[in-house]
């Protein structure tokens, strides 16, 4: 009884401090949050609903998904513009590096979870198409003087190729983001091999052993139960399939960390307010980055879920980390 | 107060139940993950020493299937236990370390294999497709698919085609070592006669080069991959161990400068013969073996010539000294007046 009163008081204080001195409040709120959920859990285990973090706030787990949905519903229209502005266009490089590390072979099937506006899937399809073009060009060059046998073989292999088409499935919990993505695909003229599915990362609407590659780019920190999402990833991947996760992480360099913190907490919500008219969503964005586990811890979580050969690369000295694991 | 104690008891009970479930969780290969970050070539070499036996493809696919089934079965129990004991990660870790697993050294009937073994299996399967696709990621992807793995597993090979070529080198070298060891045993048992050094070297190099014959069309591509800067240390290491092994089984136990000169000579012979083989079009590479014979004869001859030259040189010097003293005597410079 006394503990719950203490908790309520702490939340009131936190809310009042929120928009003033953000970094200081962030520090105390972080420690408060660390303390809060464990005592909350003590009582809530009996009550039946646990609580988790939503940015620097503490919310019941059932509510987090709803609030995340609302955040992305609000930002969906201006999502891509804001990405470019906030990261100064560097997010394109990060996504290109993800594709480069993925190095998909022709015929691979991709599941892009929290794919939203479809950046990864578009890049994937383009990559595979250009690889196939290169291969066709190579075989054409080596077959400058084809014999009649070669020509007949070519006809038979052309039929096989259509079944080997790579496919990308974009899965997102938020219909607004998928709508924006679909419009983009139409305007870019990409339609073949792309499908859009509404689904929750913790409970994917797919059968086991379906996909070669599972990617989740800048989405896993919004998931309420990260370990469940990882286990779902393991389930839907084929044996030998690869799990790849691009996510904001801890900056390794202390000087850069301070600049990054200042930029995140001072600039980004302001940009959000000016360009998208939404301060709170972008406040949630930068806070949720701070709450996400760091590179090593996330690597252990992936290993715990059952992936092997788990590795991570730091991009832009730790602002973004690319984790990769295999289902063997 | 009692509420807190009751809750603590509940949590402890749940943790214990979680422990019991997690004990069955697979952990053998998890600590191995970090070892993979150490040089991959070393892992393949170690692997080649461990698991010389090549499992036939059908049985290997069934064992890997069992592996996946067992793995997924344990995943379910681990997942169920995990939800209960979310508050005790430290205890989980301890239980995983405590479970004892037998050797990961690639025994035939073992349920779990290490990541390095799986990678070696994929690369061995990929070798079959090299004549068609060259030394490339496509060959590795098709190799993985024949083992029932997705083509995305090629992502495990960060060196790409280099991994495939180095794996092939390691495999050939270990095969050669086996053959030489077998021959050595036979000589020890008295079942075969001991060959002369020149003949032994020729046979060893010929055996090793014959292993390249199935891949001879694409071998120039492999050589160019081996010459890439990040592959040079590994390829040099393979070459030096190869040459060292051949000389060891030839009976060389020298401990002086000869150790280096012999290995340098054999390295030269091996490399030049390999290059000749690449552009040889005679039946069964007859020209290459003739070239090899000539080079070995050259080396042998050079050794004897060197010795002769040394002794000749000494005699010549002595002759000159004698002539000089005679001259001095004749001109009377030696006389003491």
TrEMBL record, chain A:
Any one GO biological process: methylation
UniProt entry keywords in alphabetical sequence: Membrane, Methyltransferase, Mitochondrion, Mitochondrion inner membrane, S-adenosyl-L-methionine, Transferase, Ubiquinone biosynthesis
Subcellular location: Mitochondrion inner membrane
PROSITE patterns, A to Z: SAM_MT_UBIE (PS51608), UBIE_1 (PS01183), UBIE_2 (PS01184)
NCBIfam families, alphabetized: MenG_MenH_UbiE, PRK00216.1-5
Family: Belongs to the class I-like SAM-binding methyltransferase superfamily. MenG/UbiE family.
Protein name: 2-methoxy-6-polyprenyl-1,4-benzoquinol methylase, mitochondrial
Organism: Perca fluviatilis (European perch)
From TrEMBL, chain B:
Gene3D superfamilies linked to this entry: Tetracycline Repressor, domain 2
One term of GO molecular function: lipid binding
Main location: mitochondrion
Domain Ubiquinone biosynthesis protein COQ9 HTH: start-end pairs: 115-145
Subcellular location: Mitochondrion
Keyword Transit peptide on entry: yes
InterPro entries with a match to the protein in the record: COQ9_C, COQ9_HTH, Ubiq_biosynth_COQ9
Ranges of residues in domain COQ9 C-terminal: 232-302
Source species, domain of life: Eukaryota
A single Gene Ontology CC term: mitochondrial inner membrane
Pathway(s) of this molecule: Cofactor biosynthesis; ubiquinone biosynthesis
Residue ranges of the region described as Disordered: 46-116
BP terms from Gene Ontology: ubiquinone biosynthetic process
Keywords for this protein: Lipid-binding, Mitochondrion, Transit peptide, Ubiquinone biosynthesis
Oligomer and partners: Homodimer. Heterodimer; two heterodimers of COQ7:COQ9 come together on the same side of the lipid pseudo-bilayer and form a curved tetramer with a hydrophobic surface suitable for membrane interaction. These two tetramers assemble into a soluble octamer with a pseudo-bilayer of lipids captured within. Interacts with COQ7; this interaction allows ubiquinone (CoQ) isoprene intermediates presentation to COQ7 and facilitates the COQ7-mediated hydroxylase step.
Function field: Membrane-associated protein that warps the membrane surface to access and bind aromatic isoprenes with high specificity, including ubiquinone (CoQ) isoprene intermediates and presents them directly to Coq7, therefore facilitating the Coq7-mediated hydroxylase step. Participates in the biosynthesis of coenzyme Q, also named ubiquinone, an essential lipid-soluble electron transporter for aerobic cellular respiration.
Family: Belongs to the COQ9 family.
Protein's recorded name: Ubiquinone biosynthesis protein
């Amino acid at each position: 009884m006394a503990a719950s009163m203490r908790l309520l008081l702490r939340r009131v204080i936190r809310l009042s401090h929120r928009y003033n001195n953000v970094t200081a409040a962030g520090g105390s709120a972080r420690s408060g949050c660390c303390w809060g959920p464990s005592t909350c859990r003590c009582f809530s285990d009996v009550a039946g609903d646990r609580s988790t973090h939503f940015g620097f706030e503490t919310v019941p787990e059932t509510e987090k998904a709803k609030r995340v949905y609302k955040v992305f519903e609000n930002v969906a229209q201006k999502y891509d513009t804001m990405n470019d502005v906030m990261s100064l266009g560097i997010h394109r490089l990060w996504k290109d590096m993800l594709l480069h590390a993925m190095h998909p072979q022709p015929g691979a099937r991709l599941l892009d979870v929290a794919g939203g506006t479809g950046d990864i899937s578009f890049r994937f399809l383009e990559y595979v198409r250009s690889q196939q073009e290169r291969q066709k060009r190579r075989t054409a060059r080596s077959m400058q003087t084809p014999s009649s046998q070669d020509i007949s073989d070519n006809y038979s292999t052309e039929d096989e190729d259509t079944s080997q088409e790579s496919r990308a499935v974009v899965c997102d919990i938020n219909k607004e983001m998928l709508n924006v993505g679909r419009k983009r695909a139409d305007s870019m003229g990409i339609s073949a091999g792309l499908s859009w599915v509404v689904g929750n990362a913790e409970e994917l609407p797919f059968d086991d052993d379906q996909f070669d590659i599972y990617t989740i780019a800048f989405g896993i920190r919004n998931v309420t139960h990260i370990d469940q999402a990882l286990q779902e990833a393991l389930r839907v991947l084929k044996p030998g399939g690869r799990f790849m996760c691009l996510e904001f992480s801890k900056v390794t360099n202390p000087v850069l960390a301070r600049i990054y913190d200042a930029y995140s907490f001072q600039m980004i919500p302001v940009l959000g307010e000016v360009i998208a008219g939404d301060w709170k969503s972008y406040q949630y964005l930068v806070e949720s980055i701070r709450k996400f586990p760091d590179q090593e811890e996330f690597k252990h979580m992936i290993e715990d879920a059952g992936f092997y050969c788990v590795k991570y690369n730091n991009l832009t000295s730790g602002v973004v980390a690319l984790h990769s694991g295999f289902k063997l | 107060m009692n509420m807190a104690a009751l809750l603590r008891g509940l949590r402890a009970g749940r943790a214990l139940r979680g422990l019991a479930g997690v004990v069955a969780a697979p952990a053998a290969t998890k600590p191995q993950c970090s070892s993979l970050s150490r040089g991959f070539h070393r892992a393949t070499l170690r692997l080649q020493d461990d698991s010389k036996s090549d499992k036939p493809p059908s049985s290997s696919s069934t064992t890997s299937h069992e592996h996946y089934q067992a793995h997924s079965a344990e995943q379910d129990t681990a997942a169920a236990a995990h939800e209960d004991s979310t508050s005790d990660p430290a205890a989980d870790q301890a239980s995983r370390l405590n479970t004892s697993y037998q050797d990961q050294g690639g025994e035939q009937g073992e349920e779990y294999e290490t990541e390095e073994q799986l990678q070696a299996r994929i690369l061995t399967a990929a070798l079959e497709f090299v004549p068609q696709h060259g030394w490339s990621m496509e060959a590795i992807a098709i190799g993985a698919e024949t083992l029932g793995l997705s083509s995305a597993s090629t992502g495990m090979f960060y060196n790409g085609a280099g991994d495939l070529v180095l794996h092939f080198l390691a495999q050939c070298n270990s095969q050669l070592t086996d053959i030489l060891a077998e021959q050595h045993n036979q000589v020890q048992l008295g079942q075969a006669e001991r060959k002369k050094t020149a003949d032994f070297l020729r046979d060893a190099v010929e055996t090793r080069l014959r292993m390249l014959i199935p891949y001879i069309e694409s071998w120039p591509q492999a050589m160019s991959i081996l010459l890439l800067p990040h592959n040079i240390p590994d390829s040099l290491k393979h070459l030096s161990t190869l040459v060292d092994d051949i000389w060891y089984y030839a009976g060389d136990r020298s401990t002086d400068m000869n150790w280096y000169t012999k290995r340098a000579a054999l390295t030269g012979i091996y490399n030049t013969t390999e290059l000749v083989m690449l552009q040889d079009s005679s039946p069964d590479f007859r020209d290459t073996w003739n070239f090899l014979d000539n080079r070995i004869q050259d080396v042998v001859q050079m050794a004897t010539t060197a010795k002769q030259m040394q002794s000749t040189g000494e005699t010549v010097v002595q002759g000159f000294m004698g002539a000089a003293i005679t001259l001095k005597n004749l001109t009377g410079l030696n006389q003491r007046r």
